[in-house]
Amino acid sequence: MAASNILKDIENKYDVKRLKTISGIKVWPLVRQFLVFQEIKKTLGYDNRLRTRNKRQLLKNFYRGFNNIFRLKKFDYLFFNNTDKRVLHANKYFDIYFDAWADKLGQDKSLFVEWAIHKHLSKQKTYSKNVISDLPFKAIVALVKLFTKIRLEDRELLNEIIKEHQISNLINEELKNKLAEFKVFDLLFKITKPKAIFVLSSFSKISIVAAAKKRGVKVFEAQHGYIGDHHTFYTANIKFPEYYPDYLISFGTYEKIQSNPRLIFNSNQIIPIGSFQLELIKNKPIPDNLLNFKEKYDLVFCITLQAIKEDIILDWVFNNARDNKNWLFVIRTKDRDIDYSKYTSENNIKELKEYSIYEILKVADYNVTIYSTTAIEGIFLGAPPIFFNINNLSRQHFNIDKLNAFVIEDANEKLTKKELTKESCFEKSFFIDNYFENVNKTILTKYMTKNELNP
Hints:
Blueprint: H1 3-13, H2 28-44, H3 55-62, E1 77-82, E2 86-89, E3 92-95, H4 99-105, E4 110-115, E5 131-133, H5 135-145, H6 155-164, H7 170-192, E6 196-199, H8 206-214, E7 218-222, E8 247-250, H9 254-258, E9 270-272, H10 276-282, H11 288-296, E10 299-304, H12 310-323, E11 327-332, H13 341-344, E12 349-350, H14 357-363, E13 366-369, H15 374-381, E14 385-388, H16 393-397, H17 400-403, E15 406-408, H18 435-441, H19 444-447
Parallel strand pairs: 1-4, 1-6, 4-5, 6-7, 7-8, 8-9, 10-11, 10-13, 11-12, 13-14, 14-15
Antiparallel strand pairs: 2-3
Helix pairs in contact: 1-2, 2-7, 5-7, 7-8
């Protein structure tokens, strides 16, 4: 079963709004993400756990900015961000989603609660003035979880769903964790009274969002990837507004003008701003070595891997590379420690690790992906997507027919130059230009006093 289908099946058959704790907390939104990722792991072998398991490094990370935990009441704005989303700008590592807003609202009044895959950057290298690791909060949540019990009004309903869909019993641990997280942040926001919080991937911080909204704290989400018409976590038939951010700071106007009734945001809640990172890349000169590749080969393909069925895609790449020596295939992967020498033995298959994926996209003619956000980022940078429709994931995330996009349905399919002349109909509204200008003219504080109704 496709990951998104499990949610549709359950929500169509069961009254999931009946799933509540005895204290009235709605349970279904807290476990939706877990169900999707469990289904993806079961069918595709994908594991979304990225944080390092090195205990020594985790201990060092724990104490990054630890003194700020005693100053929480001094901050009006909390930014829940990721270390790996920082780029070098003005000689320091700038958060591509939030630092411009922290500058506007006041860095002294802003605290970045940061998640790190491997390690945090030093204070000297970090642009944001105030940073604290998310690990102390995780530790408190883990402690509270030990004393958290799941008391549901209709336990039998959840048990029936678990049994019918063969859901892992880990769902109970996930629910306990989310309930504990809600308790911790509910108390935190009650004590510290921030004016607003800013999040990435609100679906992964659903209990934090809910706690903020319970306390009347405005929640802004920065768009981090493609949403479009069908995104599993941003569209729903059954909605829970108290679990959704108040506003979406978007890349462009696409979601705002579509008026999609299933989108969890209405048009008035979407604030188009653009993408700082893409503008930075777009305006940066292309390295000479990459330009040389562009001149040497007739076509350049960026292969954007997503840790899903990589062997199938790479075998397809290998076969097409052998048949087309004048085409270059550049492999880009999530895990750079994996050995791809089996494939790069072909001279026209390379990794080019010294360059970012965006630099590759600037010289690429096409971007081969399952459903990565690089599909639309590549359009902005001049590399339209070729969708590799494994397990129908491409069609679930993108309206391929509407886009008239090129799609690979069969791993044995071979590319030909004739097929690649197909004219696609890609929207130009996914991204807008002038990121900093848009930030400067947007008065976020007015949104903090408005009472927008969620759909």
